[in-house]
Amino acid sequence: MSLKQLVLEDGSYFVGEGFGSDSESIGEIVFNTGMTGYQEIISDPSYCGQIVTFTYPLVGNYGINRDDFESVDPAILGVVVKEHCDTPSNFRSEETLDQFLEAKDIPGIAGIDTRKLTKIIRRHGTMKAMITSMDRPVSEVLEILNQTKLPIDQVSQVSTIKPYVVPGRGCRIVLMDFGMKHGILRELTKRDCHVTVVPYDTTAQEIDRLKPDGIMLTNGPGDPKNVPEAIETIKELIGQVPVFGICLGHQLIALASGADTAKMKFGHRGSNQPVKDLKNGKTYITSQNHGYSVSRESLEATDLELTQTSLNDESVEGLAHRLHPVFSVQYHPESSPGPEDTENLFDVFLENIQADKKQQKEEATCLNAQI
Ligand SMILES: NC(=O)CC[C@H](N)C(=O)O
After folding, report:
1. Residue from 159, 248, 315 whose mutation best tests the ligand 1 pocket (most atoms within 8 A of CB)
2. Model's pTM, two decimal places?
3. Which end of the chain has fewer CB atoms within 10 angstroms, the N or the C?
4. Which NCBIfam families match (predicted)?
């Protein structure tokens, strides 16, 4: 067992037992409050550039299996836990968390008082942090952290490089990949959609050539303002075909519609975030992972309607366009991990597409009759 240290930008530091890879890493430290779902969290590309603290005290007890990945190559920069389990017990388990992190060159640190660490992050907000060996004095690590600028090109790191097709007999969907979780693709293919996954910087003209019935905008890492090309594309797409945005996709719809986004102090990351639907009065328990949110006041000057809010802090959780079949949510209806309360939103998207097709047909018949 080798000792490692976790040093935070504000000077706090923790010493723990190293596991996973021995490499050093610098990233934004955040915390996730989910009690299960570590494999999905670790492989969710939205965590690109971040070191994740798990507040649940035991991580790794059901191992790593081949089915629950949300991406092929995890983009997370480090894992912080109280205790990791080296003797997983589950019929699907193929390797331990330690073995997986080592194979993927992701450093882990265990034996950390994650409650104390989380309190620090809640008080100060998310900040830069480094996982490193004990060889470096804390003052040196702080100097490195001071001089490090965290990258802002995370979306281009995790988006697909080339378009690809997942065939189906149903609706033709173009999925703009900003760091897609496989769960989103799974929900669409489950509904027999013909999905073309395209890179984040695909233009509206290129998308138009694919003749989509609907566009999905995925989750993804970083600040939505760091993908201005996608904001321009979405501006052009709104009004052309039905659009459904998830998480980063939701934030991009807001920016494309003239609303604003801002960084939250420590974000929402967990599997039990309560959301209120303002239309039907229901509360949904949702899975979330975001550090930015749409500014509520900025919605007034736009054509966007607030449809859902967080019951924890009243932040914006859902939006719908007043004029076009465009809607979005800040949370993850595909769950993975987390509750499946809002999975029906994929059906709402497909219903919007059917309604839009019907309307287009009627308009064409009307036009033919006039001629
Ligand atoms: N899961 C996501 O898509 C996250 C969106 C964005 N990167 C945020 O942190 O707010």
Report:
1. 248
2. 0.97
3. C
4. CPSaseIIsmall, PRK12838.1
ipTM exceeds 0.90: yes
Range of the domain at 232: 155-359
CATH code, domain with 315? 3.40.50.880
Is the shortest distance between the CB of 221 and ligand 1 below 6 Å? Answer: yes
155 close to ligand 1 (CB < 6 Angstrom) = no
Binding site membership of 220 for ligand 1 (Cβ less than 6 Å):
yes
Same domain, yes or no: 265 and 344: yes
Counting from 1 in the atom list of ligand 1, the atom nearest the Cα of 44 is 1
pLDDT digits (tens, 9 = 90+) for 230-273: 999 999 999 999 999 999 999 999 999 999 999 999 999 999 99
**Ligand 1 pocket, residue 37 CB under 6 Å:** no
Catalytic residues: 247, 332, 334
Q: How far is the CA of 179 from the centre of ligand 1 (A)?
A: 10
Rounded to an integer, what distance in angstroms lies between the CA atom of residue 328 and that of residue 216?
Answer: 10
Per-residue pLDDT of 28-75, as tens digits, reads 999 999 999 999 999 999 999 999 999 999 999 999 999 999 999 999
